[in-house]
Amino acid sequence: MAGSSEQGKRFVPSTGRFIGRRIVVTGGSRGLGGEVVRLLLAEGARVATCARKVEPLDGLRRSLGVGDELLTCSLDVAVPELLEQFVDSAAEAFGGLDGVVACAGGARGRGITEATVEDWATTWALNAGHFARLAARATPHLRASGGGSIVVVSSISGWKPGPQAQYGASKAAQLHMVASLARELGSAGIRVNAVSPGSMLIPGKRWDRMRQEDPAAFEQFTAEFPGRELVRPEEVADVIAFLLSDQARGVTGINLPVDRGQNAPTPEGY
User: Fold this and answer.
1) Contact 58, 64 (CB under 8 A)
2) What is the arithmetic mean of pLDDT over 192-203?
3) What is the Cα–Cα distance from 226 to 223, expressed in whole angstroms?
4) Cα 226 from chain centre
5) Do 89 and 1 touch, CB atoms closer than 8 A?
6) Is 13's pLDDT higher than 70?
7) What residues contact residue 191 under an 8 Å CB cut-off, 6+ apart?
8) Omega into 166 within 30° of 0, i.e. cis?
9) Residues 92, 177, 198, 111, CA torsion sign
């Protein structure tokens, strides 16, 4: 984990909503996670984030021009001991924690007859397992700070059926954990909530590639959205920040979809 030794324009907070807050975001180097990190820093938070590869983390830091208000670490969140060390290191560097966001995740494997035991185990570890270990390790730090907020990025695939089953099952597990942990940790002043994005239009990712490579298929897919427009990551980041903030101090144990009213989560139509 490291701060910044690079010279550049300082990152000046634009609002005071998170000044003094210390927040961990997994999977924050790009895409939705990157948007969350940018927003929290812009609103005054100190943020620790992790990703598998060093290069995207370095790119994020360069694009922001930040210093010690951003800590970064390269690790695989599916390895419990590495994730736990990261959380502890962030808490030590910041003098405590006030919030965590489980944004990292993923899937492996194909349909039920093709997916291997390893595909199921890997997908489960990336989503349900990673969230469980993050929440468990962060809880003592949040409790010591007088409470805080835990947010997990789930998916509409957690309750709207679609391929692949191992992904949907792991996302559904996240939603159940949110409901359970909200009750378990409430007495410590810790709120636990989920945000479930619909299909997001992220540069270079699946739907952006479809838009460029197969415009007809992309246009057909947009019919799943009442407004015929996919979700944008900044829209989801805004909701995550809300759940982390004092504005949501009465909100816990919920799953909040940010899907623009999406029907089927994939072009397969289910």
Assistant:
1) no
2) 96
3) 7
4) 25
5) yes
6) no
7) 147, 148, 149, 150, 182, 243, 248, 249, 251, 252
8) no
9) positive
Mean per-residue pLDDT for 131-160? 97
With tokens 């949040």, the residue in question is 142
Residue 142 identity: L
Domains identified in the chain and CATH numbers: 22-258 (3.40.50.720)
Query: Any idea what the Cα angle at residue 37 is, between residues 169 and 119, rounded to 5°?
Result: 25
Residue 6 has what pLDDT? 36
- Tally the residues of the chain: 270
Average pLDDT, the chain: 93
Torsions phi, psi for 151 (to 5 deg): -125, 130
Percent of the chain with pLDDT strictly greater than 70: 94
Cβ partners under 8 Å of residue 220, min gap 6 = 267
CB 57, CB 48: distance < 8 Å: no
100 by DSSP, 3-state: which? Answer: strand
Q: Report residue 91 CA to chain centroid gap.
A: 19
pLDDT tens across 230-257, in order? 999 999 999 999 999 999 999 999 999 9
Instruction: Provide the annotated active-site residues.
Output: 154-155, 167, 171
